[in-house]
Amino acid sequence: MDMYREDVMDHYEHPRNQGSFGDAQDKDVLTARDSNASCGDMVKFYIRIAKGKIIEVKWEGIGCAITTAAASKLSEYLQGQSLKAVQKMSEEELVREGVGFEVNPGRSKCLTLPVKVVKKLCRS
């Protein structure tokens, strides 16, 4: 198995930052969710902000290995980032920088679902 597949499978089998915050009504917590109607995957992100920085990230969801690994990797990447910097990033940049792997075009919706949720969250 190549390193790319090993990394994806590791994040799928041992997702990082999975869960939610106890008090999602906290004014410093942004939340957003979305789903992929074609396959049923669903992802919800929770991001805690302090002084313009993302200090904690959690996510919940159901999905395939690609969606789960992408959400897990993205949650690690976001911690410590400036909210403004993430807001300025395109979806393509977030995939490249935050997710760090590519898939064939038939699975691109799985890969980009967590990114779309984060972009939606940053607009709220």
TrEMBL record:
GO molecular function, one term: iron ion binding
Domain of life: Bacteria
Region (Disordered): 1-27
Alphabetized Pfam families for the sequence: NifU_N (PF01592)
Biased composition (Basic and acidic residues): 1-16
A Gene Ontology BP annotation from the UniProt entry: iron-sulfur cluster assembly
Domain NIF system FeS cluster assembly NifU N-terminal: 3-112
PANTHER family linked: IRON-SULFUR CLUSTER ASSEMBLY ENZYME NIFU HOMOLOG
Protein name: Fe-S cluster protein
The species this protein was found in: Candidatus Collierbacteria bacterium CG17_big_fil_post_rev_8_21_14_2_50_45_7
